[in-house]
Write a structure and sequence with these properties.
binds adenosine-5'-diphosphate; about 325 residues; eight-stranded antiparallel sheet; binds magnesium ion; three-stranded antiparallel sheet
Length: about 325
């Protein structure tokens, strides 16, 4: 044996060198640390978290992703001066690529949901003023009046969907724009080669990859217990979006009035308190969640079963949860690891 020729001191030195080498080799693992930033955007807190890239790169990519979401908001919010505002004011006109994409998707989901989702509900949203202080609900006659000016079928696209005529309709893209903004941020991160990230806009999110030792884990808010979670899930790669009646609402004489308007009745949709939908894109998940909310539990679940790539969980106003057949696969509940 040669071991007796090796001095203990040498062995210690060897081990020390080995430890240093291991530490050095592990250094790229530091890239495993997640980098995250939060901003207030589109009326909600948006957190973008990336993992697996150096901190400098992470900062650059996260910034670019936020810029992308900000640009969507600048274009598609209804506040004065935005391109959507101008389009509505002019009754139509030429569309940017992004605007054409989002409006076409809105019309698609309007058709697919039998008119439950309808981007022309804008006049009713303005009438209800859900974001204002609690106030009496609008008069039934006023609602009936405005309903005659709602309906996506009146809207017509020009050739190649590069322009649009609103024909008296007013567009509100609030049911899909956040999802679209998330998708745009996702594209920035994917194009930059980021393999692990989560873009979370107030619970509407897209995940890719993992958190390192375990999958990304996200909470689904409890619709009736503020600050509490209904479930914690580990969504597979893709989008997960929740529509609820518990964030934007007012209570008047004991009744809750929220921001998702049934285009058939003109009143806030009843029966559901929260819908969580998974889909390959956040825009689809966003539109489908809003649609299911309006359709109600029974029809909403049927719609989910018939919509390829989408799964969902509905929590009724009375608190029961019902899931579409593939929801547990798309967003399994977090195990207690
Ligand atoms: P959040 O924006 O809170 O995530 P949703 O995705 O459900 O919630 O979108 C609600 C928004 O969608 C409303 O604030 C409004 O701008 C718009 N909206 C309301 N009712 C409808 C509807 N029937 N179809 C399409 N969009 C709607
Ligand atoms: Mg939506």
């Amino acid at each position: 044996m040669t071991s007796k020729n090796v001095k203990p001191k040498k062995i210690i030195l060897f081990i020390a060198a080995l430890i240093l080498l291991l530490l050095w080799a592990r250094k790229p693992e530091q890239l495993g640390a997640a980098y995250s930033e939060t901003e207030f955007l589109m009326d909600t807190l948006v957190t973008i978290t990336v993992r697996g890239v150096g901190e400098e790169d992470a900062k650059t990519y996260v910034r670019a992703a936020f810029d992308e979401m900000g640009a969507v908001d600048e274009e598609m919010a209804r506040r004065e001066g935005t391109p959507l505002y101008k389009l509505n004011k002019a009754g139509g006109g030429a569309l940017s690529q992004s605007m054409a994409t989002v409006i076409a998707a809105s019309i698609h989901w309007a058709e697919a949901s039998g008119g439950a989702f309808d981007p022309t509900v804008a006049p009713l949203i303005d009438l209800w003023r859900v974001k204002d202080e609690p106030h009496p609900p609008p008069a039934a006659e006023d609602i009936a009046d405005l309903l005659t000016g709602v309906g996506y079928l009146a809207v017509s696209f020009g050739a190649d969907e590069k322009s649009i005529e609103l024909n008296g309709r007013v567009l509100d893209l609030g049911g899909v724009a956040k999802g679209y903004a998330i998708d745009r941020a996702v594209k920035v991160l994917k194009d930059a080669g980021v393999g692990n990230f989560i873009v979370n806009a107030g619970g509407d999110l897209f995940v890719k990859g993992d958190k390192g030792e375990r999958p990304w884990r996200v909470g689904i808010a409890h619709p009736r217990k503020p600050g509490e979670l209904f479930a914690i899930v580990e969504p597979r790669e893709g989008a997960m979006v929740t529509s609820g009646d518990y964030e934007r609402y007012f209570i008047w004489e004991g009744k809750r009035y929220h921001h998702i308007i049934d285009p058939k009745s003109g009143y806030p949709a009843e029966g559901i308190s929260s819908v969580t939908v998974t889909a390959p894109t956040a825009m689809a998940a966003d539109a489908v969640a809003t649609a299911v909310f309006i359709l109600g539990a029974e029809q909403g679940l049927a719609f989910l079963e018939g919509t390829q790539g989408a799964e969902g969980m509905v929590i009724s106003s009375t608190g029961e949860a019902v899931k579409s057949s593939g929801f547990d696969h798309a967003a399994p509940e977090a195990s207690s690891r």
